Amino acid sequence: MNEKKSYFFIIVVCVIIFLYTLFSYFQHMEMENKGKLNFYSVFSQSCGNNRGSSSVYINYNQKVYSIRLPNVDCLKYPIGSKIGLIYNDKFDYFYIPDGLEKDISRLIFIGVVIIILLIKWKGINIRRWLNSARKGF
């Protein structure tokens, strides 16, 4: 596979990730605007000591749900404590309201990656473009 096809494949994968993140953003925005915040009791906790994944576990409708959290936040919810969540019944998952901070930062990050890949893939020479723009003034 030559370099241009590899970049094209990477760009396609990044666009798919971007679209999925955009879909999640709109789901979470709707949940924050229309969803009802309920408090659920934590029955188990798995907080990592390092950068690993941390989770708290809740029961809802006789099903166990894992709520992934940063380690610092995981420690705030010991067993028996209550955690405020919004349930998405359409896709069967819980969402922690955060003002869409994670979704927005993910969209910005993947958007920047796509732009950088497009610039590299198309062979746009930024220095040549800037120098020609300066000469034009």
For the structure shown, list the relevant keywords.
137 residues, alpha+beta, five-stranded antiparallel β-sheet, 50% helix
* Termini separation: 42 Å
Q: Roughly what fraction of the amino acids lie in strands?
A: 15-25%
Strand order of the largest sheet: 3-2-1-4-5
How many discrete structural domains?
Answer: 1
Describe the structure.
With 137 residues, the chain is of the alpha+beta class. It has one domain. The chain has four helices and five strands. It has helices at 3-34, 71-74, 101-122, 126-136; strands at residues 38-46, 54-60, 63-69, 82-88, 93-95. It has a five-stranded antiparallel beta sheet. A hairpin with a 4-residue loop joins strand 4 and strand 5 (93-95). Helix 1 packs antiparallel against helix 3. The protein is elongated. The model has no long low-confidence stretch (mean pLDDT 84).
Please give the structural blueprint.
Layout: H1 3-34, E1 38-46, E2 54-60, E3 63-69, H2 71-74, E4 82-88, E5 93-95, H3 101-122, H4 126-136
Helix pairs in contact: 1-3
Task: Write a brief caption for the model.
Helix content is 50%, strand content 24%.
